[in-house]
Amino acid sequence: MKQSMMFIPTLREVPADAEVKSHQLMLRAGYIRQNTSGVYSYLPLAHKVLKKIEAIVREEMHNAGASELLMPALQQAELWQESGRWYSYGPELMRLKDRHNRDFALGATHEEMITSLVRDEVKSYKRLPLALYQIQTKFRDEKRPRFGILRGREFIMKDAYSFHSSQESLDEGYDKMFAAYQNVFARCGLNFRAVIADSGAMGGTDTHEFMVLSEIGEDTIAYSDTSQYAANIEMAPVIETYEASTEVKQELVKVETPNQRTIDEVVNFLHVSKEQAIKSILFKVDEQFVLVLVRGDHEINDIKVKNLYGASVVELATPEETKNILNCVPGYVGPIGVNEGVEVIADHAVKAVVNGVCGANEENYHYNNVNVDRDYSVAKYADLRFIQEGDLSPDGEGRIQFAKGIEVGHVFKLGTRYSEAMDATYLDENGRSQPMIMGCYGIGVSRTLAAIIEQHNDDNGIVLPEAVAPFHVHIVPVNAKNDVQRELSEKLYSQMNNAGLEVLLDDRQERVGVKFADSDLIGIPVRITVGKKAEEGIVEVKVRKSGESFEVTTEELSSKLDQLLGN
């Protein structure tokens, strides 16, 4: 492709509203342009990279035994109502009505759609297992779109779904997809980890996220410093044990704590440690109010609360609800004297707190010398806190460390969550009707592009791996008005195209400094500079990743490119 014919609107300055490196570079390199908040146009360079990523995905999906199809982005509400997610998915689901006042959603995901398709066509165990996938634009009404295409309201996704007649078959299909995902992200040149995850609104169990390691990641990975254990911090269980102090239990005392609401404020005011404090927070678990207790130096993990109750929705009680239920404002809530309509649950660490501190359910007051069983009761103990750095690894090997990650893929064992709700059944070997067992597997294709750039860049611009670069080679004549340079550049361009290389020829009437700056910015792996030695048949080759440059004759160029680009 000749650069004068290609739309690559590069920028010299960093856009003021671009917060992270990938967003900045994709704007500067002319990869994307924002249309509205969270919605972007993919310009020619980005589109070429996306197609490279999609090609890798398609190859690995084919190897895993999945067939490609394409489903509607516009989905009727009835399907989501069948599964129950029309009411529980939340405001991220983009909903609309047609001219006949019928409800629709723009596809955030396609579990309902694929389940309805398969249930209507597959009736026998003989047609199972079956794996189908698509690459399509998805829509989610993010409350706060940010980081460019890393968190947008419109994005490109590969979603795959598998249908099985047994758990063993699902496990086998899951393992194939897991391996396919590892191959996809490795081929894209990413440094990533597969981590144990929460299924969220998707439902199901046994899920893994594929996280690209990055300081700007919105997810925290908890991993062992000595083993292969890794999990999203939301899902990492705590296996620490706690022993209660042998100190004598003191008399319960109610103390005034004016304007002391937070744990830090209270412990400093009362001159006690955070380990002696009991943090009490009222949650609404579906329609039930639950008071959750953790030690003052710990944080409540609402995912663990949700999983403990098998709930659909867990959210903090509002200040108004807290006032109505506990007759108290947040900051002074505690477990003593809680009415019977509120269940009190506690993290295991709370059981070992002796002579602790908690809210008195009265504004500006706390209790000191609080002891469980004597002063308040707990309905159940469970692991309810976030794991912390330095905690024992859940696999018993080493200690936990944290890293930030960008989620680029997620695999789920859905089980019968959708097939039972939507009556997707088949006849087994004995002629009995059984619900299909399902798996679901997603890759954020456009997010993967941003994650690649987040990991592959330098001070001069994007440094793309060869497998996903928009072009293999960038030919840059120093002086496009020089006949010898121009003719040699055209000759090399033609030869490389005929050899199957993807080549960008910078034929623009620009200063050479502008051409070099743009070349570094857009991230093509190899640059060939045709300059003063063109008459001698000598060109300069520069490797974008290493910065290494050297001169070669045009006769040597082909074999040298084979070495640099891996044939």
What does this 3D model show about the protein?
The protein has 567 residues and is of the alpha+beta class. It has three domains: 269 residues, Bira Bifunctional Protein, Domain 2 (BirA Bifunctional Protein, domain 2); 130 residues, Alpha-Beta Complex (YbaK protein); 95 residues, Rossmann fold. It is built from 14 helices and 31 strands. The strands form eight sheets. Strands 3, 7, 8, 9, 10, 11, 12, 21 and 24 form a nine-stranded mixed sheet that branches. It is globular. One of its GO terms (cellular component) is cytosol.
List its salient traits:
single chain; 567 residues; alpha+beta; BirA Bifunctional Protein, domain 2; YbaK protein; Rossmann fold; 9-stranded mixed beta sheet; 5-stranded mixed beta sheet; 14 helices; 26% helix; globular; ATP-binding; Proline--tRNA ligase; transferase activity; YbaK/aa-tRNA-synth-assoc-dom; ligase
